[in-house]
Amino acid sequence: MIRVAGLAVLLLITVALSGCTGDPGGVTVLKVLPAGSLLIPFEEAEAEFEALHPGVDVQLEGHGSIQVIRQVTDLHRAADVVAVADESLIPDMMYRRMEGSEENYTDWYIPFATNEMVIAYTPASRYAAEITSENWYEILDRPGVRTGFSNPMLDAAGYRTLMVVQLAESEYGNETLFASLIGNHFDPPLEVTTDAGVTTIHLPQIMKPSDQDLVIRDGSIYLISLLQAGGIDYAFEYRSVADAVGLEWISLPESINLGSSDLEQEYSKVKVELGFQRFSSIGKERTGRHIVYAITIPANAPNPALAEEFMDYVLAQAEKGRPGWPPPLGKGS
Amino acid sequence: MRSAIPALLLLAACTALCLLAGCTGTPAGGTVPADDFSDWRLTLNGTGEEVLTLEDLRGLPAAEGHGYAVSTVGIRYGPYRCRGVDLTLLVDMAGGMGERDQVWVSAPDGYLWVFDAEQMSGEGFVTFNEDLKEIPSPPLSIILMYEQDGHPLSYNDGGPARIAIISQEPGVVTEGSAWVKWVDRIEVRRT
Question: Which of A21, A29, A134, A268 has the fewest CB atoms nearer than 10 Å to its CB?
């Protein structure tokens, strides 16, 4: 009787102690939230890190960059590592007090990579044999050519596409380029205003093109799928994403591709005003910037030491300039 | 032997506790409010304003269908059997909408999404099959879902009420950005 009761007490203690640590079977779960364009590189890092760290289960959950941060700040979900495609989002959205705490969600971040906007296509795309870095805007404007980009409401690559095309007007001395490639494919056409040297593209509440020549999808993976199926001919993408999935691509001049830290001031002459404020935690205006990826560990991360190890691993791999990864920041960036 | 029975019962109870308690964990480790929705109110705003309780919402004519969503990076949620109230009915309660009006759906977490008249009639959505290949859109409806797979919608799933885009055909996947969770306000905006 005493032995059985003792066993029962032992079981009770076991329940109390083992209770729900999220660590079943001795496995430590590391929750990592990367931006969509980091998913492929982070999947590689996940496999490699787990091989080096038996007992660690890295769990990736990709979102658009703003949604990545909102998982922590607005939805109060626990995360060990946060990595986004726009460094400005971390101070804008995370340098504020956590609920019920004197600490901020974070007070620091590490910029670790850049990227550039390119035009991706396949050998089956119309005029694939003709398109170059010099004539791309003429090719995209030809009748029957279908071009895609992601929804600026949801994806940084979407509003960056609009910035690229607007910046191209100055680059090529063609003041109707934005209207002919994008603006006039909406009804009514997109409104573009200029004030004190800054051009602002005003978007409607619903990004719905009025014809078949322009295609907008929620995220880059859907554009890739359409490209591969022949549903569109060209898509504005990050260079690393086009590389990672094996698409052909043409590069764009540095003055418009958002890939040079030296041209930050030029990029900032274009803004996009979204049709509505999708999140109360961030405004609806986006300003042209050099593309910089950044990573941080939230102050309330469940496994901060392990998170730092994972972050260090990712930073070391990014520094190598691996294929399909956003290129490392150059010296001086 | 008889004297050991209470202890064995205690042992059995403890074992059952172990099995039942079993580390289901708080999803994502976050602070999850209890699913007590008695304070929840839905504000309908158009030409007039109406405020509904969950009981009021569940008392309205119900719409049912298959719902299946996908995130911007390709994470699929579902398939679900969805039950709720057709958004057009709620908009009608707010005074209806014209062809150029919009429906703004928002939640206390700060999320907002906008539907136009075409979408309110179930058209203009991008649809995929389960392999995420685009397919022609079957007839769709937007509902404010309060029941998922026969159970009240939990807080973690966006309860007590979230937007769902449903079809009478199974396996139709829609873009998840419109599936607003924790809806507490539906507003008709005149344009």
Answer: A134
Q: List chain A residues with CB under 8 Å of B30.
A: 75-78
Model confidence at B94: pLDDT above 50: yes
> Among A20, A70, A154, whose Cβ lies nearest the Cβ of B72?
A154
List the strands of the sheet with A234-238, edge to edge.
Answer: A214-217, A147-150, A234-238, A117-121, A248-250
Query: What is the percent of chain A where pLDDT is above 90?
Result: 81
Q: Tell me which of A2 and A105 has the higher pLDDT.
A: A105
- pLDDT tens for A75-98 read 899 999 999 999 999 999 999 999
A43 touches chain B (CB under 8 A): no
Task: Band the pLDDT of B49: cuts 50, 70, 90.
Answer: very high
A217 vs A86, A205, A264, A301, B35, CA distance in Å?
A: 20, 15, 28, 33, 34
CATH number, span B38-189: 3.90.420.10
Is residue B33 scored above 80 in pLDDT? no
Helix (H) or strand (E) holding A62: none
Domain ranges of chain A: 24-114+293-319, 117-287
- Chain A partners of B7 at a C-beta cutoff of 8 Å? 1, 4-5, 8
Of B8, B31, B74, the CB nearest to A221: B74
A46-81 burial: b if 16+ Cβ within 10 Å, else e: beebeeebeebebebbbbbbbbbbbbbbbbbbbbbb
Any idea which of A185-189, A321-325, B33-37, B43-47 has the lowest mean pLDDT? B33-37
- Binning chain A into helix, strand and coil, the percentages to the nearest 5 are 40, 20, 40
The superfamily (CATH) of domain A24-114+293-319 is: Periplasmic binding protein-like II (3.40.190.10)
Interface of A with B in 164-203 (CB under 8 A): none
Cβ neighbours of A221 in B, within 8 Å: 73-74, 132
- Domain extent listing, chain B: 38-189
Q: pLDDT digits over A28-75, tens only? A: 999 999 999 999 999 999 999 999 999 999 999 999 898 899 999 988
Taking the Cβ of residue A47 and every Cβ of chain B, the question of whether any pair is shorter than 8 Å is answered with: no
What sign for the dihedral angle of Cα B48, B54, B59, B65? positive
**Alpha carbon B188 to its chain's center:** 20
Collapsing DSSP to helix, strand or coil, A293 comes out as strand
Rg of chain B in Å (alpha carbons)? 21
Helix (H, G, I), strand (E, B) or coil at A314: helix
Query: Which architecture characterizes domain A117-287 according to CATH?
Result: 3-Layer(aba) Sandwich (3.40)
Residues of chain B contacting A, Cβ within 8 Å: 3-4, 7-8, 10-11, 14-15, 17-18, 21, 23-26, 28-31, 71-75, 102, 104, 109-116, 119, 124, 126, 132-134, 175-177
The answer to whether residue B11 scores a pLDDT higher than 90 is no
Interchain contact, B114 vs A24, CB within 8 Å: no
What was the pLDDT predicted at A283?
Answer: 80
